[in-house]
Amino acid sequence: MIVSANPLNQAELDSLAQHLNIRVKVLDNLRHEAVSHIVRTTLTNTGNHSIPSSGWTLYFHSMLLAFPDDIQSEHNKSIDLEVEKVRFGVVQGDLYYMTPIGGFVPIPPGGERVYNVPVALWAVSRTDFMPLWYVTSDDVNVEPRICSHTASFDLDFVDDFDDVRQWKRWRKDGYNPYTPEDRAEKLMFVDRGEVRF
Predict the structure, then answer these.
(1) Measuring CA to CA, which residue among 116, 1, 110 is closest to residue 58?
(2) Which three-class secondary structure state does DSSP give residue 183?
(3) Are 86 and 102 in contact (CB under 8 A)?
(4) Class of residue 127 by CB neighbours under 10 A (exposed 0-12, middle 13-18, buried 19+)
(5) pTM above 0.90?
(6) Per-position pLDDT tens, the chain of length 197
(7) Is the CB of residue 3 less than 8 Å from the CB of residue 137?
C-alpha cells in the first residue's frame, strides 16, 4: 500500500466521503463473449475543494474478479494504471481498493475521472454490484467513512441496463427484458365465473 506524506485528516476524509460521487455502468458483456465485461467507474468531485493527489484510498467489494488478466495469483495482487495514475488491487476475497499513485492529478471541484475496468464473466443487473464503498486516510488514526453516494441498498449509484450489450450475458443469450405488454400477457387473469371453497 502506498503511504502518503500528507494523509487526510478526519475533516478532509469526511468531506471526501460526502462529495465523492461514484457511478458504475456496465458497458459491454458481449465483446469478450461471457469471459469478461467492462465496467465504467466514474468518480466525480461534487465538493468545493479538490480531491488530493495522495493520502486516501477507496475500497469496494466485487463478487467477480476485477482485472482478471492481471490480478490472478498470490504474486500479483495489484495493477498500476500508468495513464490514469492509480493502483487497483485486491485485499482479500472480494475486497478491492483503488489509490492514487505518483503523478495523479487532483480532481478539481466539478471534475471527474473515468476508469474502464475489465471484470470476469458478466453483470446483468444492479444486484451484481455491492453498496457501501468507503474511503480511508493514510493516517491509521483517522476513522474510515462510507461514501454517501453508495450508501443506499437501492444501488442507485449503478446505471440502468438499457442496452442489449448490458442485459445479455453472451450473444446467443435468449433473455430480453419484458415489455409492459409481455408483463400484461404473463400476468393476465381470466375470470371463469367459478367460485371454489
Answers:
(1) 1
(2) helix
(3) no
(4) exposed
(5) no
(6) 444 568 999 999 999 999 999 999 999 999 898 899 999 999 999 999 999 999 999 999 999 999 988 886 556 789 999 999 999 999 999 999 999 999 999 999 999 999 999 999 999 999 999 999 999 999 999 999 999 999 999 999 999 999 999 999 999 998 888 888 888 888 887 777 777 76
(7) no
Q: Alpha-carbon distance 154 to 98, whole Å?
A: 23
Domain architecture of the chain: domains with CATH? 10-172 (2.60.40.290)
25 with 158: CB under 8 angstroms? yes
| Residue with grid cell 488530493, as numbered in its chain | 52
What residue has cell string 465483446? 31
- Which cell numbers hold the place of 118? 475489465
